[in-house]
Amino acid sequence: MRLFSYGLVRALVYGVIGLVAGMAVTMAVRAALGLAAWAAAPVSATGSIVGTLTFLWGVGAFTDWWSWARGAHAAEPPHHHRDGPEWPRYLNFDPNHRIIGVQYTVTSVIVMLTGGLLALTFRLELAQPGMQIMTTDTYNYLMSAHGIIMIAAILMGVGGMANFLIPMMIGAPDMAFPRVNALSYWIAVPGLIMVVSSLFTGGFDTGWTGYPPLGVKAPLGAQFFYLGVFVVGLSSIIGSVNYIVTIIKMRAPGMTWFRMPIFVWGMFATALIQLIATQFIGMAFLMVVLERLLGMGFFDPAKGGDVVLFQHIFWFYSHPAVYVFILPGLGVISELLPVFVRKPLFGYKWVALSSMFIALVGFLVWAHHMFATGLGMVLNNAFMVTTLLVAVPTGVKFFSWLATLWGGKITFETPMLFVLGSWVIFLIGGLSGPTNAFIATDLYVHDTYFVVAHFHHTMFGGFVFPFFAAIYYWFPKATGRMYSERLGKIHFWLMLVGFHLMTIAMFWIGLHGMRRRIADYDPTQGFGPWQTVTTTGAYLVGIGVTIFVINMIRSARRGEVAVPNPWRSMSPEWQLPSPPPDGNFETPPEVIGDPYDYGLAGASYVRVAAPSAAGH
Amino acid sequence: MDLQSKLAGKFRLGWIVAGGLTLLTLVEYWVATAVTGNLPYILVIAILKAWLILKYFMHISQVWDEEGEH
Amino acid sequence: MRKLALPLALTVILSVVAVMWVQRATLTAAPAAAEAAAVDSLLRLEFYILAVFFVLCMVFFLYSLWAFRRRAGETGDGAHFHSHTGLEIAWTVVPVIIVVAMGYHGARVIADLKAVDVPKSADDLEVIVTGQQWSWTFEYPEQGVATTDLVLPSGRSVYFRLRAVDVIHSFWVPEFRLKMDTIPGKENVLRLTPNQVGEFKVRCAELCGTRHAYMESPVRVLEAADFQAWMDEEVKIANDPTKAGPKVAGQFGCIGCHSIDGSKLVGPTWKGLAGHDVSLADGSTVTADDDYLRESIVDPSAAIVEGYADNVMPRDFATRMTEKQIADVIAYIKTLK
Amino acid sequence: MAAHTAAHAAPRFNKLALNRLGLWLFMLSETMIFIILLVTRFVLFGTGMPEGIEVDQLLGLVITILLLASSISAYRAETAMAHGNRDAFQRNMLLTIIMGTVFLLAVVAWEWPLAPHHGLHLQEGFGIVFFAMTGMHAFHVLTGVLMLIIVYLNGRNGAYSPESYWGVEATVKYWHFVDLVWVFFYPALYLLN
C-alpha cells in the first residue's frame, strides 16, 4: 500500500484503531467492575489518550526509541538524503528542523482558517440584535472553540518560526534533539484534532478559559477541549526544551549572546515562558477533567474546593502565554525592519533585554485578569503596578523601532508592509492596555468588547501580522520560489482596513457597555450598527486571508524561482541555498561582525564557506 | 589511585549523604510529632534534604561548570 | 536635527486636537451612580495620556515612512548608527516615572471610592444579590423583603453582598460602572451610590452558559421617598401571608405548573391540598402536613404523587428560596381550601 | 546517511552537555506540576492538617525511607557504571527497581484502599489533594521504574561503558528527581499539624 508509506496516513489509521481499542478496553473493564459498560465521558477520555499514543506510534515517533529500549543502538540523528520529490517528507516523521518548521507553519495556517471560519459564522449572528441563524448554545460553542483554536494556531505558528529559523540563524546544523523536535510537532496534531473535535462531541460553552464550575457542568465537548489543550501543551513544553538548549549550546563560533539575530532573543524569552508556565494550564485543565470524571472537588466549594484557585493557576500560564504569542512576532518586526530600512537595528541590546524583561514581568501580572473576583486591595494594587510596568520594556521596543526607521532608505515590499501594519496595530493594542490595568477602570471595562478589541489588537499586531510578514519574507527560503507581490499587497490592505473596522467599533461599544461573549444583545443599547461594521471588517479580513492562501499555493507550485538573497540580508540563513540542504552549513559559519551593520561599507556578519551549488 | 578505590571513595560519600538524609528524615518525623506549628522547621529540613540530593546525587553543578565529560 | 521640526510641530498640534476630542467625546455609558464620576475622570485621564503617546508615535512613524522612503534610482543604504544610550535611558526612565505616578493615582482612585473590599457602614442599605443560571434575586435582609427587580433609593449608598448558587456570574449595571463577580462559595461585596432616578438593567458580565446573554434584571432607582413607599408596601406584603405567598409563588414560577383552582396541570393542584391525604406513585398514602409540603418544595423527587412524573420540578429551590419564602408558600397553600 | 552530518556535527557539539541541559530543563518544567499540587494543598487546607484526618504515620515513614534507600542504590548503580564495575551496577540497579516497585505497590495497592478509613476520600476534603499528589507522584514513580527496567536490561546486554552511559545517568537523575519531589510531598501530606 503506497498510501501507508505516508506517516500521516498511518498515524490517522492507527489513531482511530487506538481510539476504538481504548474505548473497548475501558468498556470491558467497566463491565468487569460491575458498572454500566457505556459512559461517554470516561470511555472517550481513555479512548482519546490511547488514540493519541497510537497516532504517534503510527507516524513513527517511537520507532527509534523503541529499538533503543529493546537494546539496539538507535541511529544517529537520521538526516535523510532521499532521491525523488521532497514533499513526502512533510507528511512523515522527519527530524529536520526546516521540514518541521514548514509542517508547523502549514498546520498553523490550516488551524487558523478553521478558527477564522468559526468567527465568521458567529460574526454573522452578531451583526444584528436578536437571534437569526443559530441558538445561543451554538453561539457559545463557536465562540469558545474560536478562542482556543486560534490560540492553538498561534502556538503552532510560533513553533513554525522557531523551528525553521533558530538553527539557521545561529549557524547550527539542526536542533539539539531532532527526534524530540519532530515529536513536539507530531504530538500537537492529535491534540489539535481533539480540540477541534470538541465541536462535534457536544461543544463547550465556557469560553477558552474553561472556568469551573461552568466547565465542570459543560457538555462532553469540554472534556475533549481540556484534554486537547493538555496535549498541545506537552508539545509546547518539549519544543521549548529544544529551543533553549539549541540557543545556549549550539551557536556558531564567534556568535556571542549580543551578536545573535534579534529574533533568537525573542524566541529565547518565549521558550523560557513556555517551559515554566505551560504546566500550569495543563494542570488546571487536568484538575477540571479529574473533577468531571472522578468527582474530585478541587474547585467545588461544597467539597472543600475553591473556585478562584483555578483562575490563579490558569492565568499563571495564560497571562505569560500572551507573551509567548507576541515575543516571537516582535522579534520578527525587529528582525525585518533593519533589512528593509537598510540601517542597523537601533539599540540592539535594549531591544534584546526588553524581551527578557517582558518575560520576567509576565510572571508577575497574572491576577490583573481577576480584579473582579474580589482579590482584596493589597493584591489588586500590587498587580496593577506590575501590569503597568509591562509598558516600559514595550515602550523601549516601540521607540527603538521608530529610531530604526529614522534616516533609513525604506522600501515597501509585502513583508515590510506587514511589519509596519503590525507596528500600528500593536501600538493601539498596547495603548489600550492600561485601561484594563487600572482597577477602577478595569472594573468597568472588564468582560466588555473593549477587552475583546484590546486583545485582538495585541494578537494581530503581536502575532498575526508579523507571522504573515515572516511567511512572505522566508517563503523564498522555504520553497525556493517567490510569492506574488501584487496579491500580497492586496492581502495586506484588506487585512489592515478590515481589522481596524472590526476593532474600532468594538472599542467604542465596549466602552459603552457591550458585554463580551454574549450571543444576543439588548437592542435598546444601540449597538446594532456598530456590530454590523465589525462583521463587515471581519469579512474583509477573511477575504484577505483567502487571497493569501491562494497566493501561497500558486506561488509554491508555479512561482518564479527566487534569487539567492532577495532581501540582501546579512543574516546567516540567507547565505544558504534555498531551500537549504539538511545540516544547513557545510562547515560552521563564523561570526565576524554585528548582525545588522547595514550602511557600513565592507561590513559582514558571518563568514560562510561557499555553499555547494547543488543544494541537495 | 585506581578506579576501584576511587569507586570505594564515592560509595563512602554516598553512605555519608544517605546517613544525613536518614537522620534529617527522622528529625523531621520527630518534629512532626513533638512540635506544634511545625511548618517552618519542616520546610528548613526539607530544603536541606533537597540540597543534599541535588548536590551529591544529581550533581547539579555539572549544569554550569562542566562541558560534559563522564 | 532640522528634520525634527516638522514632526515635532505636528505632534504638538495633533496632540492638542486629540486631547480636545477626548475631552468632548462621550466615552462611556450615561452615568447613574456617584462612583461614575471618579471612574470616568480616571478613564479620561488615561485617554489623554494615551492620545498624546499615540499621536507622538504615529506622527514620527508616518513622517519617517514619507521622509525616509527610498526614492526612485537610489541604491545606497541608510545612515549607519547603532544606538544612543541617552535616548534609551530617557525613554526607559520617563515611562517608569509615568507608570509610578499613574500607579499611585490609580491606587488612590480605587481606595477613595471605598467601593470594593470595604466593611459595611451603618447607614448603607444592604442588598444580598444572588446569581443563578440565568436570573438574579435581590434580598433586603434588614426589611425581610426579596424581589426579582432591583429597586434602589437615589443618593444612599448601597452595600451589595454578592453570592452565586451554581456557576460564576458577574453583577454589573453599566451605568453604575463597577462590576464584581458572584462566585459560588465566596461572598464578594460592592458598595455603590446610585444618584440618577431611572430604569436600568443589571447585566451578567461573566459567561455563565446557555442564556447568559439574557441574564438581565430590571433596576429601578427611585427618589428616597418613593423608595420608602415602595419598601413599605413590600414589607406589608411580606408580613401578610395571603399576599406574600402568592407573590413568591409567582416569582419562582410555581403557579405555572400548580393550579390554585383545582385544575390539573403538570404538577398537582394546590387547591384543597393542605391537610388532606395524598396517594403516592409508590402506592403509599401520606397526609399533606407542613413537613410534607416543605419536603416537596426542597426535594421534589422524595415523594411523587400518583399520576405525575418525576424530574419535572427544579430541585434547587432549597438554595434559591429563603426559609421565609418557603414558609410563605406553605402558608399560602394552606389558605387554598 | 549518518556520515554526512556526523562529519561536521560530531566534533562541534558535546552531545552529553546538550543532553544534560535538556534533561535539567525538562525536570525544571516537571517541578512546576508538583509546585501546583503543593500550592493547591496549601490554598485549600492551610498549613496544617484538617480536623478528622489521621494519616497512617508508620506507613508514611516506611515508604519514605524506602524511596530514600532506592535513591542510594540508584546513586551506587550510576557510580559503579562510571567506574566500570558492572556487577555492582547490575546489583544496585535491580535493588532500585525492586524498592521502587515496592514503593509503588505500597502506595497504590496498600495505602489507597486504606485511605478512606483515615478520613481521606477521593471526592472531597483533604482526600482530594492526598490522592492527587500521591497519584501524580506514583505516575512519575511508574515511569521511572519502567525506565530503570529498560536501562537494567540494556545494561545486562552490555549497552553501557564508563565512557558512555548517558542512559544510566539520565534515568538515575530522573529517579533522584522523583525522590526529591517526595522530600516535599511527604511532610505536606503527613507531617504538618
Describe the structure.
- The complex is a heterotetramer of chains A (616), B (70), C (337) and D (193).
- Chain A has 616 residues and is mostly helical.
- Chain A has two domains: 1-73 and 87-92, no CATH class; 94-607, Cytochrome c oxidase-like, subunit I domain (Cytochrome C Oxidase, Chain A), CATH 1.20.210.
- In chain A, 65% of the residues lie in helices and 1% in strands.
- Chain A has a two-stranded antiparallel ribbon with strand order 1-2.
- The two termini of chain A are 28 Å apart.
- The mean pLDDT of chain A is 92.
- Chain B is mainly α and 70 residues long.
- Chain B has one domain.
- Chain B is built from three helices and no strands.
- The two termini of chain B are 18 Å apart.
- The model of chain B has no long low-confidence stretch (mean pLDDT 86).
- Chain C folds into three domains: 2-61 and 93-113, no CATH class; 125-237, Cupredoxins -  blue copper proteins (Immunoglobulin-like), CATH 2.60.40; 240-335, Cytochrome Bc1 Complex, Chain D, domain 2.
- Chain C is elongated and about 100 Å long.
- Chain C is an alpha+beta fold and 337 residues long.
- Chain C has eight helices and twelve strands.
- In chain C, a hairpin with a 4-residue loop joins strand 2 (135-140) and strand 3.
- The longest helix of chain C has 33 residues, at 35-67.
- With 193 residues, chain D is mainly alpha-helical.
- The longest helix of chain D is centred in the N-terminal third of the chain and has 31 residues, at 15-45.
- Chains in contact: A-C, A-D, B-D.
- Chains B and D meet through helix 1 and helix 2 of B and helix 2, helix 3 and helix 6 of D.
CATH level-4 homologous superfamily of the largest domain in chain C? Cupredoxins -  blue copper proteins
DSSP strand count of chain C: 12
How many H/I helices of chain C? 8
What Rg of chain B, in angstroms, do the CA atoms define?
A: 16 Å
Please report the distance between the alpha carbons of the first and last residues of chain B.
Answer: 18 Å
Features:
heterotetramer, B: 70 residues, 3 helices, D: Four Helix Bundle (Hemerythrin (Met), subunit A), 6 helices, 80% helix, 0% strand
Would you summarize the structure shown here?
The complex is a heterotetramer of chains A (616), B (70), C (337) and D (193). Chain C is an alpha+beta fold and 337 residues long.
List the helices and strands and how they pair.
The complex is a heterotetramer of chains A (616), B (70), C (337) and D (193).
Chain A: H1 7-32, H2 40-59, H3 63-69, H4 97-126, H5 136-169, H6 178-197, H7 214-217, H8 221-249, H9 262-294, H10 307-341, H11 348-362, H12 377-389, H13 391-405, H14 414-431, H15 433-437, H16 439-445, H17 449-479, H18 485-511, H19 528-558, E1 590-591, E2 606-607
Antiparallel strand pairs in A: 1-2
Helix pairs in contact in A: 1-2, 2-6, 4-5, 4-6, 4-19, 5-6, 5-8, 5-10, 5-17, 6-8, 8-9, 9-10, 9-11, 10-11, 10-13, 10-14, 10-17, 11-13, 14-17, 14-18, 17-18, 18-19
Chain B: H1 3-34, H2 39-57, H3 62-65
Helix pairs in contact in B: 1-2
Chain D: H1 2-12, H2 15-45, H3 57-82, H4 86-114, H5 126-156, H6 166-191
